[in-house]
Design goal:
This protein is α/β, with parallel strands linked by helices. The chain is built from six helices and six strands, in the order E-H-E-H-H-E-H-E-H-E-E-H. The protein has one domain: 3-Layer(aba) Sandwich (Rossmann fold). The radius of gyration is 15 Å and the shape is globular.
Length: about 180
């Protein structure tokens, strides 16, 4: 199975800082078109997102799950199937005790990607990740997955010092000029 892993904030939606309410969730304009193209080309879609806002007490896991449900329903309306959303609620300096740990799932660690590879029998050599931070890129590379940095979200902070295999303007640019360029 070939897959595309997507970071959430800054890639799928506008990163407004600890987005956790439906009314603050704003899809980037080209996201639906880009994900439809990937799906039509046989890629399974996964979201891998750090959600340290849970550990630091900005919002609850329930808040995150409500927003995720909304996001997935919006994708479904557009005919897009997200196989699974993996999220890391941890941060070692968090104030919510159960989430205040050093883990192997918080990017740049690759635990979320590794879990998806195992659960879905994904071939890393045929898979990609799209992120807006160097930590996204590093997590992908640890599992042998090619990674693209988008200039949306926090991406511009990393364009000069990234290890990404490709730098794109947005998700659609990455899909058209990197993932589907064969």
């Amino acid at each position: 199975m070939k897959a595309v892993f997507l970071d959430r904030d800054g890639v799928i939606n506008v990163d407004k800082g600890y987005v956790h309410r439906v009314e603050d969730f704003e899809f980037y304009p080209n996201v639906f078109e880009a994900l439809k193209k990937l799906q039509e080309s046989g890629y399974k879609l996964f979201i891998v997102t750090n959600q340290s806002g849970i550990a630091v007490g900005y919002y609850t896991e329930e808040d995150f799950l409500k927003l995720t449900d909304y996001m997935l329903k919006e994708f479904e309306k557009e005919g897009i199937k997200i196989e699974k959303v993996y999220y890391c609620p941890h941060h070692e300096n968090g104030i919510v005790e159960e989430y205040s740990i050093k883990c192997d799932c918080r990017k740049p660690e690759s635990g979320m990607i590794k879990q998806a590879i195992k659960e879905y029998n994904i071939d890393p050599s045929q898979s990609f990740l799209i992120g807006d931070k160097e930590n996204d890129i590093l997590a992908a590379h640890k599992e042998g997955i090619k990674a693209a940095l988008v200039k949306t979200g926090q991406g511009m902070k990393y364009v000069d010092n990234t290890t990404a295999d490709f730098i794109g303007e947005d998700v659609l640019d990455v899909v058209n000029n990197f993932i589907l360029r064969k």
